[in-house]
Amino acid sequence: MTDTPRTPSQGTPPQWTPVALSRDLAPATAIPVIAEGTELALWRGRSGRLAAWHDRCPHRGMRLSQGFVRDDMLSCLYHGWRYDLEGQCRKIPAHPELEPNKAICVPAWSVTEATGIIWVSETGSGAPPDTGALAPLRSLTVERSEDALRDHLGDGVVIEFDGLHLLLQGLPQGRCVLHALTGPGLDAAGQRAASHRLEALRTRFEDSEDIA
Amino acid sequence: MKDCWFPVGAADDIPSAPGRETLLMGEPIRLFRKAGQIQACDAEGRDLPVTVAYDHVWTSLGTPSQPIFAIPEAEEPGRRFVPCGHVRVACSPLRAVENFLDIAHFPFVHTDILGAEPHTEVYRYEVKIREEEDEVWATKVRFYQPQAAKAAEGGQEIEYMYRVPLPTASVLYKTCPSKPEAWDVIAIFVQPLTETTCVAWPWMALYDDTSSQADLVGFQQMIFLQDRAILENQVPALLPLDPGKEIPTRADMTSIAYRRWLKSHDYTYGAQLEAQ
Amino acid sequence: MKLYDWVLSPDCYKARLLAALTGQSLTTVATDVFPGKDHLTPAFRDMNPRATLPVLVAGDLVLTEVPAILIYLGGDWGGDNATERARQAEWLTFSQRLAGTLGLARRIDMMDAPGDLAQAQRDGTRLLRQLEARLFDRQTLGHAFLTGPAPTLADIACFPDVMLAPDGGVSLAPYAAIRAWSRAIRSLPGFIEMPGIPRLHELSPEPGA
Ligand code: FES
Ligand SMILES: [Fe+2]
């Protein structure tokens, strides 16, 4: 239990938040993620390029993370407005002949991918931390806040615990994503064993009286 | 908005006293049947006005100045009335109505049923506020549909008219596949539970001698559930009434008029205003 | 074959989806469960005393339990040896638990069915976590589906209630492996949708492109 609230920006700005493992975002897909309390649509074009935007279509507010990707364009699921990787609206299907107004643009965050991890940042200054040769395993959500987990696990970007290397992504409402990495070169059986350890860790955190 | 009529139940499904509890604009109310009459009261036991129309029970927390709106077409002989049950949705009641007024989403949300790519174009149509009735009307709306209704085979261009007689009720008229000189009537009656949750009661009055009731209800439920998946993902949940928050195009003229009409009447339960 | 069907029922959708994926045609009989309560009529109860949907009628055979319907429609999707059949049976049972938790949450949240919503959501979340862990294990073997390299009854039985979890207020955002599995199923040739489980529009071409 902690009584002193920790501000997430404490320590080292600029902030990059790990939001997904590269392996979990295939080409031509979009997913919802949350960074610093902001809901974002994270998506990858068919070419592999990434974008992270406010998860809200400027037209009628539909979550863009529910949209679909054709080539390097994301289309909103509601009326099909189509946006390029820069967030610029390029097509409004209700008016096929119309060149969309340049002002129709979705606010974007910076996004970068390194050693199998996707990071986002509102300002985009600096570079995300280097996780070296560690191999991304899987991400899982714990029903405990980042602060509560850090009180238990300690600070630092990559936290070593129980043979796993953990990146923390705090979510609203007292939840936190653990992005688990392992040492390099694990075979399939080793990966499964590590995944089962991660599951056990979550159970321990959620059952623990000390982590509220 | 308190003085408007709101749908709160299916007329054939009101139990006898003590009846059933539900919410209207955040207030608990009770509906019950007594001496063959449907009645409603608020949490303090105060009687609320009740009217039964179009297979549904309507009430109000205030004092409605008018009887419930008329749907003259529904009185025509030979129509089948199809109440389609109810579905709760986590969205503003006003967003639910606005979605009902929208056709541009058909190819993406009701794919291969009410619309299909590449037929995505929304042609120019007419919108006005009819001052005398104080209703929003959109007419001469045309859209290509691959399967316009249960009884329709193959694609055709369909014509629609939309009207909004109450802040949370809308009626649409569309080309009737089996009787081209008549209009099918499809309505959505929305019960505001809170500003961000509502219950939708779809209702139809059709000329259709061939489809089973189950087919007709199933068709409408399928369409509405497809909309529900959208409605629960609009951000913010409240309907923004100030221009600038969202970007409409010519295809959204009905929605623009609806928002203006809401604002001019101060119908803002479920709406987001500048200050927020 | 005749399927007594309700468009909003994930259980009915399982039968229609499996038939579509295996290229079988079903004659569906729309049943107005809500608000019509057609399933409570004497005629329907006579056919299925439990008064549930779906019901599959094939000649003299009347099937009312979803796993039985899937086994009947599944043909060689159901496994050709005891180990595989037993594995699938585990998931068929698991899918019934999904229906009793996530499916229940959806019926409560959407249609006022009686029950404890928070409890159904919690129990359903526990099952989603189990499924996610299992699908990750499968990924390490290079497999997208639950029991084999190709989809089986296990996948079809679990897919609908999982995909409709958001209808009952349970988010699927935390489950990367489930997301990949859902894309694999929705990409199958012959896939059909149900309200709440849309097709992948990215599989159709951009008009004019
Ligand atoms: S809300 Fe996105 S296209 Fe209309
Ligand atoms: Fe719709």
From TrEMBL, chain B:
What the entry lists under InterPro entries is as follows: Cholesterol_7-desaturase, VanA_C_cat
Per UniProt, the keywords (alphabetical) are: Dioxygenase, Oxidoreductase
State the Pfam families in the record. VanA_C (PF19112)
Answer whether the UniProt record assigns the keyword Phosphoprotein to this protein.
Answer: no
Question: Transmembrane region positions?
Answer: none
MF terms in GO: dioxygenase activity
Tell me where in this chain the Vanillate O-demethylase oxygenase-like C-terminal catalytic domain is found.
Answer: 89-264
Superkingdom assignment: Bacteria
What protein name applies here?
A: Aromatic ring-hydroxylating dioxygenase subunit alpha
TrEMBL record, chain C:
Q: Which organism is it from?
A: Pseudooceanicola albus
InterPro entries given for it?
Glutathione-S-Trfase_C-like, Glutathione-S-Trfase_C_sf, Glutathione_S-Trfase, Glutathione_S-Trfase_N, Thioredoxin-like_sf
What protein name is recorded for this chain?
Glutathione S-transferase family protein
Q: Does the keyword Transferase apply?
A: yes
GO MF terms held by the record: transferase activity
Bilayer-spanning residue ranges: none
- PANTHER family associated with the record: GLUTATHIONE S-TRANSFERASE-RELATED, HYPOTHETICAL GLUTATHIONE S-TRANSFERASE LIKE PROTEIN
Among Gene3D superfamilies, the record links this protein to: 1.20.1050.10, Glutaredoxin
What keyword terms does UniProt attach to this protein? Transferase
Ranges for domain GST C-terminal come to 81-209
Q: Pfam families attached here?
A: GST_N
User: Would you indicate the residue range of the signal peptide?
Assistant: none
Entry keyword annotation includes Transferase: yes
Q: Which residue ranges does the record assign to the GST N-terminal domain?
A: 1-81
